[in-house]
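Supplementary Methods, section 5.1.

A reviewer requested that the exact input to the structure prediction be made available. We therefore reproduce it here, unchanged from the version used in the analyses.
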Amino acid sequence: MATLGNPKNTIEILNKYKFVFQKKFGQNFLIDTHVLDKIIQAAEISKEDFVLEIGPGIGTLTQYLCENAREVVAVEIDRMLIPILEDTLSEYDNVTVINNDILKLDLNALVEERNQGRPIKVVANLPYYITTPIIMDLFERHLPLKNITVMVQKEVADRMQAVPGSKDYGALSLAVQYYAKPYIAANVPPNCFMPRPNVGSAVINLTLHQEKPLEIKDESLLFKLVRASFNQRRKTLVNGLNNSPELPYSKEEITKALHSLGLSENIRGEALTLEQFAALANALSMSR
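The structure derived from this sequence is encoded token-by-token as follows.
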């Protein structure tokens, strides 16, 4: 089977199946072998690994995963791609393709059945409009994960690893860093894809914390605080939290909690570290 990292082979297979790109699925296929190698390296794929691939497309990255991993399960939402994947992956006996929406699949049951509940690696070249919901869904299901290595829009990768006080720092930075350590493994220009996207991309590796980095009494409260403080970025933290329909606290309670942590009532959310948000959540949950 010809490797699909080569643009000529990609065009041939698309023509063979008269494939039409679906705008609603945000399809952009990789056509650069160097980038494919970098994804495998960043995810540290070895013959011990069970890999879940989200959005295999025509199987370009899947072929590389099959060569390097013990077993691959690829979940593809687009029915039209299933016959193509059966063709491009026909030489591999260590891959299963599932035609489903990743957000609707019982992944914990899948990992239990196929990998005896042991930690897996997730690799994906995700449609940019659904990157964040899918990554957050993987975290929030508390799957046994070693790492997630994804191709995302460059600005999303920057936001994931942003630090307090920077313009990219926000709710996504805090949510990702709560669960994992982000590291940008490669920047990927538009000409590495077919069709070419309008934006630059990046491969980001998220290695999950083995131990929770913080002692937190109420995880859902932490994320409500984070959301509320960045929903109205220009406001002080006190006003942002007080205006949130998700939070029951008065300005007095919020101010008192901030003072107990040695923070000013005029501080903005973008100045707080993850540790300070966690301490604030703990202080507020004790105040009731």
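Residues 219-231 form the longest helix (13 residues). These observations are discussed further in the main text.
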